[in-house]
Design a protein that fits this description.
Distance between the termini: 64 Å
Strand content: 35-45%
Number of strands: 38
CATH architecture of the largest domain: Sandwich
Number of helices: 0
Helix content: under 10%
Length: 482
């Protein structure tokens, strides 16, 4: 909290404020002075005086940049220089080394959190000097004095690598997987190993792990105990500084979390159940998923298994409503069930024999397809589509136009393929008196139409058969509101 105090008087390094009543303020606030210098200070305490006044004691004030580091030894490497230094007093968040050449070598820079810093990308056989700065939230220090002149070369002795950068730690069963990124500098020699070390937060011996690349698996940990883990890199010259640390708490694996249910799509005596994997596998890989569909009116569940989404559940009864869910299984056990999705399987349809198949393209709120070729006399072309509850709340109107592109309309047939169960048991059957065997035959008029109720999820085939050869045809399906 910031508190503005008016009219202060300065006595002996303390701010004295007159008051006839009590005054309370948190000791970490900033006191903004008014009427004197206009500066601010961070006060460290408030003392009540016998006369009712208070004394506010100012502390260190605003954060200032650190002092310059003290330069140490600059060690020449192959196309790089290792710059050692002594940190200044106070808080420092990062260091930066800069190396410049006096005879045309390419300059370089490096940053890090500790000494030494390795500056890479330099030119061999050129003369360099290096400086170091320190930074904190208050800014950057002045540069250190310059190092002694050094000359990188291909034959220079290597030094230990820089520190890797720690990444995520993934808990396992009595183990942890420690990720990291390689250090900026390998010290002039290839890194031969990375070593992880995990130390219990409550004290105890560190547990090691090693690998030649990220991640490193550290085994032999105790489940439920929190560890602080770090990584070092090793080359022929030795082992470099450790990375920062990351905490991890190993745990025994459990059953996975619940999957998330997706769309449940009706089939002929079946259902396709989609889902997304759970957020957690419980610490053990998921080996399978099981979809379970139970009749809403009661009865035994029917199941299907698979390794991924979707899962097909077969053996369902057409016309019966089911509620479906999904579980995930790993080596430990099976998850709780996902949410549920409802589905009613329906009888399937297939294209009539002897037909060729066209495509219905969606245009706005209707399906509309115009054929650019011809359909010979006596031939039939089928246009399959799947009825959707949102698009077809009542039914669909089938239309056909023969001679669409020729400018003349001729006799033609319109039909909906007759599949078992498609038009039986519907509240609203086809609404056209001259339908016989699901077919309308008309004379030479502009269009022939029929309106039929449809079952959501059912595949239908809208078939056209012009009576005059060499004529183009147009097929159209429109949703109808109830």
């Amino acid at each position: 909290m910031r508190k503005t105090l008016l009219g202060p008087l300065l006595f002996g390094g303390a701010l004295i404020f007159g008051s006839t009543g009590a005054f309370a303020q948190a000791a970490a606030s900033t006191v903004v002075l008014s009427g004197t210098t206009g500066n601010s200070c961070v006060y460290t305490g408030i003392t009540m005086q016998p006369n009712g006044g208070i004394t506010v004691t100012c502390g260190g004030g605003a954060v200032t940049p650190p002092a310059a580091p003290t330069i140490g030894t600059a060690t020449p490497l192959n196309a790089s220089i290792s710059v050692a230094f002594t940190p200044p007093a106070g808080t420092v968040t990062s260091y930066a080394a800069a190396c410049t050449s006096s005879d045309g070598g390419v300059a370089g820079n490096a940053t890090g959190s500790a000494s030494p810093l390795t500056v890479s990308g330099l030119t061999n056989d050129k003369t360099y000097t290096c400086t170091v700065t320190a930074s904190n939230s208050g800014g950057t220090s002045a540069a250190s004095a310059a190092s002694a002149a050094v000359i990188p070369s291909a034959g220079a002795a290597a030094t230990p690598p820089g520190a890797p950068t720690i990444g995520a730690a993934t808990p396992g069963n009595n183990s942890a997987s420690i990720a990291f990124t390689a250090p900026i500098s390998n010290g002039g020699a290839a890194i031969t190993a990375y070593n992880a070390s995990c130390t219990p937060s409550g004290g105890g011996a560190a547990v090691p792990g090693t690998n030649t690349a990220s991640p490193i698996t550290v085994s032999g940990l105790t489940n439920g105990t929190t560890y602080a883990c770090s990584v070092t890199a090793t080359n022929s010259a030795g082992t470099g500084a450790a990375s920062g640390t990351v905490n991890v708490t190993p745990a025994a694996p459990t059953a996975p979390g619940a999957p998330t249910i997706g769309a449940v799509t009706a089939g002929n005596g079946s259902a396709s159940v989609a889902f997304t994997a759970p957020a957690s596998n419980g610490g053990s890989p998921i080996t399978s998923y099981t979809a379970s569909c139970t009749p809403t009116g009661g009865g035994a569940a029917v199941t299907g298994t698979g390794a991924s989404s979707p899962i097909t559940v077969s053996g369902l009864t057409n016309g019966t409503a089911y509620v479906c869910s999904v579980t995930a299984t790993n080596a430990v056990g099976t998850s709780t069930a996902s949410g549920t999705g409802n589905v009613t399987p329906v009888a399937g349809c297939s294209a009539p024999p002897g037909t060729t198949t066209g495509t219905l393209n969606a245009t706005g709120d209707r399906y509309n397809q115009t054929e650019s070729g011809t359909v010979p006399a006596g031939g039939i072309k089928s246009f399959p589509f799947v009825a959707q509850s949102a698009a077809y709340p009542y039914g669909i109107k089938f239309e056909i136009e023969s001679g669409y592109n020729s400018g003349s309309y001729n006799a033609k047939d319109i039909s909906v393929s007759s599949c078992p169960g498609v038009f039986t048991g519907l509240a609203y059957p086809c609404l056209k008196s001259n339908i016989t065997a699901n077919r309308i035959v008309t004379g030479p008029v502009g269009t022939a139409t029929s309106v039929c109720e449809v079952v959501p999820g059912q595949t239908y085939y809208f078939n056209i058969r012009p009576s005059v050869s060499g004529q183009d045809a147009a097929a159209m399906i429109n949703p109808m509101a109830r």
